[in-house]
Amino acid sequence: MKNLAPAVVPLLSFLFAPTAFAAGGIPQTISYYEMVLDAFHANHQWVPTVGALFCTLVIIVIGLRYKAAVAASAAEVRPSGDFSMRFVIESILDFVHGIAKDNCGHGFRKFFPFLSALFIFILTCNLSGLVPGFPPPTESMDTNVAMGIFVFLVYNIAGFKEQGAVGYFKHFLGPVAAIAPLYFAIEMVSHGSRPLSLGLRLAGNIFGDHTLLGVFTSLSYIVLPALLMFLGLLVAVVQSFVFTLLTGIYISLAISHDH
Question: What pLDDT, on a 0 to 100 scale, did the predictor assign at position 221?
Fold first, then answer.
């Protein structure tokens, strides 16, 4: 058994934390995305992009399997009650359906696919960070601000389509004509900062959780990182929910006729 110890300890550290032993026993973060980029002699700045593509591929594969599972039970229209991949996906979709219905008004069904895709993508990216060697793409501002810009375009286009150019433009002028220029300037800053605030909030929380896990891994390679996995899971779900909820609120404000 003593002869197995040198092999078992590094194996456990690999299973429970995203670190590997560097020279001198110093923990060093590993990334399979960097290994892929090194194989193609590409810059490491593309790591978030490779991670996002990998998570997208995972979502596509799971989606195809879910489609096959639904097609196989086409005669049974009620949701699956057993704990399975289909049950998990349907639970997630039902959860996002509630977010869309509570925030996007009577036309929530046309925004439901977008909110679902956003939630599932962010959740998958966040959860990938719990797997050793797969840093979450959502800890990068590049990935998050890109999603924030997409959200910005979607809710503004929705506002234009719902109220027309003139009606939507009135949202930015406020209720009092005398202070319309000041109100317009404030609204421009507020709306312009939304992609950045969405990205910064998500990146900060995911990066902080990932860093915390790495710090405790350097203290103990077995027990503490495993316990912190639950915290990482909680952060992954909550931050996916917050990003999707704020997107639903922005859409609601854009299509509302009460302003």
Answer: 62
Which of 213, 218, 241, 250 minimizes the C-alpha distance to 99? Answer: 241
pTM: 0.83
DSSP-assigned states of every residue in 120-171: HHHHHHHHHTTSTT---GGGSHHHHHHHHHHHHHHHHHHHHHHHHHHHHHGG
Most confident of 24-28, 85-89, 105-109, 114-118: 114-118
Bridge-based pairing state of the strands 27-29 and 19-21: antiparallel
* Residue 228 pLDDT: 73
Q: What is the pLDDT at residue 73? A: 74
Distance separating alpha carbons of residues 43 and 142, to the nearest angstrom: 15
Long-range contacts of 121-124 (CB under 8 A, 24+ apart): 121/55, 121/56, 121/59, 121/147, 122/147, 122/202, 122/239, 122/240, 122/243, 122/244, 123/92, 123/236, 123/237, 123/240, 124/55, 124/58, 124/59
Closest CA to 92 of 56, 52, 63: 63
